[in-house]
Design a protein that fits this description.
Layout lengths: L3 E4 L4 E4 L2 H8 L2 H12 L4 H10 L4 H6 L15 H19 L8 H12 L3 H5 L9 H4 L13 H5 L8
Antiparallel strand pairs: 1-2
Helix pairs in contact: 3-5
Length: 164
Amino acid sequence: MVKRYYCDYCDRSFKDDPEARKKHLTSLLHVNAQKDHYRLFKEPEETLKEELAKITCKRFSLNGECPFGYSCRFSHYTPNMIGELRQIVAMKKQAEENPRNNWPDPNAIAEEYLKTTTNDDNEMKSIKEPWKVPVELQHFPTLPPSLWPLNSHTINDPPVTQWG
């Protein structure tokens, strides 16, 4: 059985030998697919600069399709998309200029939380049990320790030292 090589960029497979792989990796289809993939990870500033330098693709604006795809030398961005890209660039620039400008002070949040939760010391001492023991389990004295009902005393100091 012949080994097959799968290209993630092109979404196709072919015979895995050096000649076939070299032929595929230098093909125009593969080079364009690889460019399209890495285009997704460009910085917004760079994308905006490139798209503003291009003129609008007439085929894409009329039909919504272009046979050249992303390798087209004309822009496939609509004016709305360019506006959104400008907003993203502006927001990113603003965040870089003044980081944490609108973030609340973590120390102030901690102090406020501690003031509201420790107002009454008696509240903290009395632990209310969030569960109730079912009536059926209260009448079974021979339950194994793993099935004993829990309460605030048995959680911290279990009466059984050895589990059998």
